[in-house]
Amino acid sequence: MPAMPSEVPSTDVPSARESPAGDAAESNTGRKFPCPGCGAKLDFDPGQRALNCPYCGYAEQIDPSAEAVRERDWEEYWKNADSRGATIEGRSSEVQCKACAAVVLLEDKVVTDKCPYCGNDLENKPVSAESMILPEGILPFKVDLKRAKNAFRQWVAERWFAPSDLRHLADLGQLNGIYVPFWTFDSMTYSHYTGQRGDNYQEMETYVDHETSSVPDGRGNMVMQTRPVTKTRMVTRIRWTPASGEVDHFFDDVLVCASKSIPSDLLAELGPWDLQNCEPFQPQFLAGFQTERYTVDLKPGFEVARSIMDGEIRSLCCADIGGDHQQLHSVQTQHAAITFKHVLQPVWLAPYRYRDKLYRIAVNARTGELVGTRPYSFWKIGLTILFVLAIIGFVLLFASAVRSAPVASLLSFPVSDFIRPLNFGFFSAVGQFSA
Ligand SMILES: [Zn+2]
Ligand SMILES: [Zn+2]
Question: Is 309 helix (H, G, I), strand (E, B) or coil?
């Protein structure tokens, strides 16, 4: 980390904020935030919330914008469909990964040769960035590389039965900082539902049971005899009655990932995101980080949001019906006052391959939350099973020798209680083991 400069050049500092974002669409030249001290490229430093020069130490604070993040009106957007596209300044070209189809927006004059999502070589030729809906909001990187690497190392160290290569990967710390595109949708919903309400009630029921007893057979012997007996019992039944009604609900910031290159289960675990801290987009926040262009378009994005809202509306309808059980036959929902925005959210990603299978480790660069998929070392697991079996065998042998009892009777002996501490100690040992 370069030290803060003692002298910050104050004259003719080119401000990246002096031109409105729309200009980039016309000029298509982009901008790369040159250092006013030495001309080198400035990168965004999450720790200082500033554009930093790695060579001369120049730092330029990025002030929080006074404006609020703008939501776009859905109806208005589709009416003015011609004027909606632009490119992000400083990202005038893009390249699509052949392997995972991610579209990486390339930072001007910065060479990117690997896909940040899957780690494959970017074989396609970069092309001019297509115009797109510009981001309205951004959650800037907050967790820096050092903190992400530490989280990564700790995670790897805590994985039992991980192949040793995983440790190497952690040592290398191959983490890519990437802004992942998301859509958020707001919608006022009005739903009409029909269904049934089920209320429990108790009822006395008669039933026939069979009882067996021994009775004398008249010749001085007792014999077993089974006869039917009528009995009663309380049972719970459901009384169904028709139900219908209206449910209104306002949805705020329903979040949909606009990238197809991060598995959805991994993404779900990365959340929640502090969307309330979302800032108006400024291209400076992207400097030095990868950015993906959304591959889930606005309309398919809204369909995903709609299915999320539908699920919640169904629960609201059930709550409205009340009773002990509910059935919904139909739910008709109208959406009004839909607004949306394109938001970039920061993730540290480490894609890695083990025996030709792709695994990923991701760190939420706002909260430091780490999630990942990992391979298992089968020989480590196998060796452990053998070791545990050997201990069980030893314990059985030992116990049988001490009690000189048949081994079969020892099966009722609480072996598991005896073994657990040994077992646990061994697992811990494996966790530290590296071959
Ligand atoms: Zn400099
Ligand atoms: Zn890829």
Answer: helix
CA distance 350 to 360: 6
> Which tens digit of pLDDT belongs to each residue from 302-321?
999 999 999 999 999 999 99
Let me know whether 290 and 175 are in one domain.
yes
Residue 103, token pair as written in the block: 């579209």
pTM (2 decimals)? 0.73
Q: Does 304 share its domain with 396?
A: no
On whether residue 213 sits in a domain, the answer given is no
> How far, in Å, is the centroid of ligand 1 from the Cα of 278?
29
Any idea which residue has 């809906």 for tokens?
Answer: 133
State the distance from the centre of ligand 2 to the C-alpha of 351, rounded, in angstroms: 9
**Residue 122 contacts by C-beta under 8 Å, 6 or more apart in sequence?**
95, 97, 98, 104, 112, 113, 114, 115
Q: How far is the C-alpha of 343 from the C-alpha of 180, rounded, in Å?
A: 8
Residue 401 to residue 395: CA distance in whole angstroms: 10
- Please indicate, yes or no, whether residues 288 and 384 belong to a single structural domain of this protein: no
Residue 91 CA, ligand 2 centroid: distance in Å: 18
Residues 379-405 pLDDT 10s: 777 888 888 888 888 888 888 887 765
Structural domain contains residue 344: yes
Q: What backbone torsions phi and psi does residue 202 show, to the nearest 5 degrees? A: -100, 145
Residue 386: give the domain boundaries: 378-432
User: Which residues are within 8 A (CB) of 280 and not within 5 positions of it... i.e. 6 or more apart?
Assistant: 65, 67, 68, 69, 70, 136, 137, 138
Ligand nearest to the CA of 35: 1
Q: Supply the Cα-derived Rg of the chain in whole angstroms.
A: 32
